[in-house]
Amino acid sequence: MSDKKSIKFNRRNFLKFAGVAGLATGAGVMLPKDALMARSEKGSKGKKMSFDVHPGQLDDYYGFWSGGHSGEIRIIGVPSMREIHRIPVFNKECGSGWGITNESKKLLRGKDAGDTHHVHGSYKDGVYDGKYLFVNDKLNNRVARIRIDYMEVDRILEVPNIQGAHGLFPQRYPKTDWVVVNSEFQTPVPNNASNSAAFNNPQEYYGMHTIIDAERMAVVCQIQVDENCDLAATDYKGKYSMCTSYNIEKGVTISEMLASDFDYLIVFNWERIRKAMAAGKYKTINGVKILDGRMGKSDLTLRIPVPKNPHGVNISPDGKYAVCCGKVSPTTTVVELDRLDDAFAGKIKPEDCIVANPFIGLGPLHTTFDGRGNAITSVFIDSTNVKWNIAKAIEAEKGGEEAKKSNPHIVDVLDVHYQVGHIMATMAETKEADGKWLVSLNKISKDRYINVGPLKPENDQLSDITGEKIRHVHDSPTYIEPHDCIMVRRELIEPHVKHRVEMFEHPLAVTKNSVERKGNHVTVRMTANAPLFGLQEVRAKKGDKVTLIVTNHDEIVDLSNGVAISNYNINFVLGPFQTKSVTFKADKEGVFWIYCTNFCHALHLEMRMRFIVEV
Ligand code: K7E
Ligand code: CA
User: Fold this and answer.
1) pLDDT at 23 (0 to 100)
2) What CATH topology corresponds to 503-614?
3) Which of 98, 109, 259, 515 is most buried, most CB within 10 Å of its CB?
4) What span, in angstroms and rounded, lies between the C-alpha atoms of 97 and 93?
5) Domain ranges in the chain?
6) Which pLDDT value is given to residue 48?
C-alpha cells in the first residue's frame, strides 16, 4: 500500500459537484421531441418504445431479479415489469412447498433464510446459453444453481472459509465452466477453535475469491487475499476475473474501512491460478484448496488502485473496459483490460491500466451499458442515472484536468426516485447489449405508491434508452428487496423452458398407489390426478414416522395439484409430472383431511382424503 503517490484521482475535489448539480437540474430541459427521435437508434423508427404489453401478448425479455433478504429470485417480464413468477431459493415458500418437501430440505440443509444479491446466467461465447442461473447467498455463504428448463434450484453449494458471499459472476468465455464468488467480509482462516488466536487480531482476517466448478457445483479453489472482496466480474476472454475491495485497511469499524484514500480492483489471473493448482501450490483448509493471492506473496493477483471504497465493477460489452464505481469518490475508474497482460508481466504498473477517471456524481454504485459506447451509472446519493460516453471520458483524460473540467463525457442525467442501487440495461452483461431498456433498482420508494405501512416496496424504474436522452417510462414496485437483475432476450430462454418435468428423473416417481409399513415407519406412495388423489385414506398410529410421496399424473399444461395436511403444517404443490415427498411424525391423533390447495378442477374442493391417526 505504498504507491499512494502514483494515484492522481485524490486531487479531485468536491467543487466539481457544482458542475454536475447543474446538469442534474437541467435534466428537466428536454430536447425538442423531433430531435430526440431523430437521434434514437434503429428499432424505434421514430416511435417511442412502448412498455405496454397488451392482453395475450408476451414480454420481450425475461428479467431475473434477485430478491435480497427475501432469499428468492423473481422473474419479471420486461418491458411490462409484471412479476410473472418467483423461484424460491434460500427461503421457505409455501406457494410451492420449498423448504417443506424432503427434496428442497435436502438442498437447504436446515437453512431457510437467505440474502440473494447477484443473479447471472450461464454463458457461451459471451451470451447466455439458457442453461443455468447462479445466485449468491450473502447470509449463509452459499451459491445456488437454478436449472432454466424447470426454473427450479437443483444445487446449493455451501462455500467454506468465507463470510458475506457477495459478488458473483460466471465465466463468459468460451463457456461457463467456472463461477466466481467473493467474500465481502474478512474472517480468520480457518475460522474455528484451531485458529482462535486470530479472533482478536483483524490483521489475521482474510478475504477470498472462490472459484466454483459450474457443472459439479464444487469449489475448485480459493484465492486468499488480505482485502475484502466485494463485487465480481469476469472478462470476455476467459483470462481474468476481478473484485473490488473497499476494505484494504482490514478495518473492523466504518472509520477504519474509510482510512485510506484508495482501495483496489483486484484482478485474478486464471492461467496462473491453473498453473499454481497443477504445481500443488496450495494449502487445504476445510477440504478446499487455498492459493495465496496476498500482495507481495503472489503473482496470481494484480492490484489496481481505485478511489475510494469502490463498489460495482462491470465490463463493457465490447470486452474492452472494466468500470469501477467510486462510491465514496464521485468518479468511476475505467480500466483497459488489454493492458492487464503487460501489467501482470511487470511491463507496466498496475495503475497504468487506468485510462480514465471521469466525474459522475455523488455515490456512484453500479454501471451498465447500451452497447453503443455509452455507460450508465447509478448514483446513490444524487439519486440519478448518469449516462456517459466511455470514449469521450478517455479522450478527456488525455487532455488533463482542463479538458475534464466541463465533463464532456456526460450525455444525460436522469433523476430517479429514490436512492438507486443496481442499474441494468437489456442484455448489458453480454456482448449483445442492445441498448433498449434500462432498469434502475431504487432502494427507496417513499411517496411513489399508496402507503402500505412502515415497510414500503422498492421502486424499479424502467427507462427507454434508445435515444440520446434516457426517457423514464414506468414505475414498478417490487417486494423487499432485489439488488440486481439481468434482462435476457426472450428467445434465449423460452425454448429451453419446459411445461412439465421428466417424471422419472425423480427416483421415487409414483405409478402405483401403496402404503407400506416397516416397523414404525409408514411410507405412502400416491398419485394425484385432478380431482382425485390415488388413495382415499391413509392410516398411521400415533408416534409413527410417515413419508408421503406424491406424483402428479396430470399432463395438462399448468394443471398443478397441491397437497396439504390439515393441522400438520404440511403444504406443497406439484406441477405436471412432478414428484415431491415429505417426512413427518404423526404426533397428533384424530382425523385430518388431506386436501388439494391449488385449484385444479370443478371438483377441486372435493379433492380430499382422510389421514387417520389412531391411538
Ligand atoms: Cu450494490 Cu449486494 Cu450488488 Cu446491493 S450490492 S446495491
Ligand atoms: Ca477503504
Assistant:
1) 32
2) Immunoglobulin-like (2.60.40)
3) 98
4) 6
5) 503-614
6) 75
